[in-house]
Every structure is written in C-alpha cells, then in structure tokens.
Amino acid sequence: GLPVWSWDTSINRAAKSFMKANPDITVKVSNVGQPNETYTALNNAAQAGSGLPDVTLIEYLAIPDGIDKLD
Asked: Which residues are CB-neighbours of 8 under 8 A, at least 6 positions away?
C-alpha cells in the first residue's frame, strides 16, 4: 500500500477517491500525531533510513526546517 501520514482527517476522502480511480493502489492513512509529533516521526524515520511515508502532510512554514534536517 501507499503510506500517507496526516493529522487532518479530511485526507481520508481524498484517499477514498484516489483508490476508486486507481483500484490497484491501496492508500493507508495514518495519524502519527499533530504537526510537531509528525515532524519528529519523519525525522526519526529519515535518521533510521526506513519507515518514511510516501506522502505526508507538512505545514508550509515547516518545509525549510524539515529540508535542513534531511540534508
């Protein structure tokens, strides 16, 4: 399946629509916490070298900081 991390539950509707249009792809939405918890989980997965989702919700203000941590 396609792992997606999001604290915003409205993504479930988008996932259902996507799977309807793409029946060969399963989307697995996980809520790993609010923004700060999600960013910590992303950083931990990146440092571990595994476990990163294919898609994640990120606030636009957090993008520069997140990119710096992944370098």
From this structure: 57
